[in-house]
Amino acid sequence: MNTHTPDTIVVGAGVAGLTAAWNLHKAGQSVTVVDPTPGMGASRAAAGMIAAVSEVMYQHHTMRTLMTTSAARYPPLVAELTELLGHDVGYRGSETLDIGAHPADRDWFANLAEVQRAAGMTVEQITTRQARKLEPALSPAISGAFLVA
Ligand SMILES: Cc1cc2nc3c(=O)[nH]c(=O)nc-3n(C[C@H](O)[C@H](O)[C@H](O)COP(=O)(O)OP(=O)(O)OC[C@H]3O[C@@H](n4cnc5c(N)ncnc54)[C@H](O)[C@@H]3O)c2cc1C
Predict the structure, then answer these.
(1) Alpha helical stretches, state H, 86-144
(2) Is there a single domain that holds both residue 1 and residue 72?
(3) Does one domain contain both 66 and 119?
(4) Ligand 1 atom 4, closest CA
(5) In the prediction, which pLDDT does 29 show?
(6) Cα–Cα distance between 34 and 37 in angstroms, integer?
(7) What are phi and psi of 32, to 5 degrees?
(8) What confidence tens digit (pLDDT) does each residue in 95-108 have?
(9) Atom of ligand 1 nearest to the CA of 12
(10) How many domains does the chain have?
(11) Residue nearest to atom 26 of ligand 1 (CA)
(12) Is the CB–ligand 1 distance for residue 46 below 6 Å?
């Protein structure tokens, strides 16, 4: 029988639990992660965007700080895990394309662009042709596109 008692027990082996466990381990704690189906929760379904752009909403200033701070901390974590694992984990930095399918979507993104600019982002309205050049899988029927650095 294993009588070892860990310093910390983390319940849930999704991205949140595993990252917490990893950081506790680095801080010198012994950690046990408990999960009957590790990695099978929301973390398995996530498209994996570390985005603090299109999620910006009116009157969500405090949320924005949390998102950008979190996004900035992600690349060092990826570098650390890449070194530890010895292989690429598929993280890719890129700009964000906000695409309006219908004219109403385009207007919505135009309003959002103002909020994003007020939050310090560089937002450029580009033509649908330029958008499709950047992302060839886009439908020719899109109504508007905004490129966010
Ligand atoms: C379709 C989809 C797309 C998404 N796209 C994005 C995206 O592009 N970008 C983004 O940032 N976020 C995205 N998200 C959100 C993101 O996936 C979640 O915020 C994140 O994965 C949550 O991680 P978590 O570790 O908290 O939860 P989970 O990954 O759900 O992990 C929780 C774990 O806890 C375990 N558990 C539950 N109850 C118990 C228990 N009683 N005892 C032991 N273990 C237990 C479960 O088995 C599970 O493994 C998306 C989510 C979905 C569903």
Answers:
(1) 103-118, 128-134
(2) no
(3) yes
(4) 46
(5) 97
(6) 9
(7) -115, 130
(8) 899 999 999 988 88
(9) 34
(10) 2
(11) 16
(12) yes
